[in-house]
Amino acid sequence: MKKQKHQNLYKILTFCILPALFTGCSEQQIVMSQPEQTEITLSWWGNDTRTEYTLEAVQKFQKLHPDIKVKCNYSEWSGYEARSRVQMVSATEADVMQINFSWLSQYSPDGKGYYNIEEVADYIDLSNFSDDMLEYGRKNGILNAVPIAMNAETLYINQTVYEKYHLPVPQTWDELFQAADVMKKDGVYPIGAASKSIWLYFITYAEQASGKSFLTPEGKLNFSPDEFQLMIDLYIRMIQEKVMPQVEYFDRLNIDNSVYGGTVAWVSDAVNYLGNAMENGNTVVVADYTAFSPEQSGEGWYAKPASLYAISVNTEHPKESAILLDFLLNSQEMALLQGIEKGVPLSTSARKALETEGMLSGLQYEACVKMEENSKLSQIHPFMENADILAAFIDACNSVLYEKTTSQEAARDLYQQALKLLRN
After folding, report:
1. Domains of the chain
2. pLDDT of residue 218
3. Cα 68 from Cα 371, distance rounded (Å)
4. Contact assessment for residue 230 and residue 173, using Cβ atoms and an 8 Å cutoff
5. Distance CA 97, CA 308 (A)
6. pLDDT recorded at residue 11
7. Distances in Å between the alpha carbon of 389 and those of 197, 198, 292, 345, 396?
8. Sign of CA dihedral 290, 292, 295, 299
9. How far is the C-alpha of 161 from the C-alpha of 321, rounded, in Å?
10. Which residue ranges in the chain fall short of pLDDT 50?
11. Which of 47, 60, 71, 382 is 20 to 30 Å from 39 at the Cα level?
């Protein structure tokens, strides 16, 4: 009886204790199997589509690198730009960030505002990029950023609208005015564009007309008041002869509903601007770069990186940041999710992944091919996208349009403002 009692007690203890022991071991194994994670941050701007595929890409990255956790910060462009300005000043920027080309001059004039990517080149396959491509990301000889894709202002024409008026796709400035003569009776404009696009478009005109570049190779102002007057006079003439609406009244919906027969926009904005028009049954084509003659096409037009990726100079985790940067630029996973939404990728491995899947097609790709094939395009200088000189140009045009001053006087004032802004 006593023996039986001991046996029962043994069974109870075995039943209760052994599972607890096994459970304890199991929990210990689980804890030990989880890698210690390094947390880094990633920031970007863009629409909902860009946000969705980037978040999905981050999930794929974390599965490939379970020891790295990525915290994401994102917003649309204006909010991102304003927040980034504060973060760069306060040294609270993300470890890895999408940046605008002009920020290299703005935040890293000496090349020390961003991390030197060549210091972590063991973790980033830079062989996917030519030296010329990487040069866009250098400041003072230091590789601050790597370009994702190239960009250029491009003329897109709704061929369906032009064919309605029995007009060819315009190649020259004169053909735009000829189109306006026919279209204006119906309240249709040959083109319509936002202020920055028009500013750069008219720099093109003045460079072609004068044979002078806007800036010298050293970044000094090369235009005189005469070239600025050419731009102002062209703006006034285009408004008065109904080639385009005033930039203040530009409405992207008028591209969709064929009130504008075309627009000037970045390569990266091709689908953003023209997608609805094409869905509405219109044929949209990438026109030649407007010039005085077809042979001159491309002169005075500029290209730049659509955007770049950089690593914070304040990062505490340069290795992990570099591993993420390589994934964003070169991986098949990111390439297939991103497609050509940011432009046709410069990375040879990313482009090869898209070619294999037949994803290099459509209006944006056609615009990219035209950009890459035209050898006359120049590299844009950050000052050409300066918001203050752009605003000064629009103000100068309006002062003439509303007869407050002459184009000659407005051009002299604009020239002085440009000199002042370049000195600051």
Report:
1. 38-149+305-369 (3.40.190.10), 151-303+376-423 (3.40.190.10)
2. 92
3. 38
4. no
5. 8
6. 46
7. 13, 13, 26, 31, 10
8. negative
9. 48
10. 1-32
11. 47
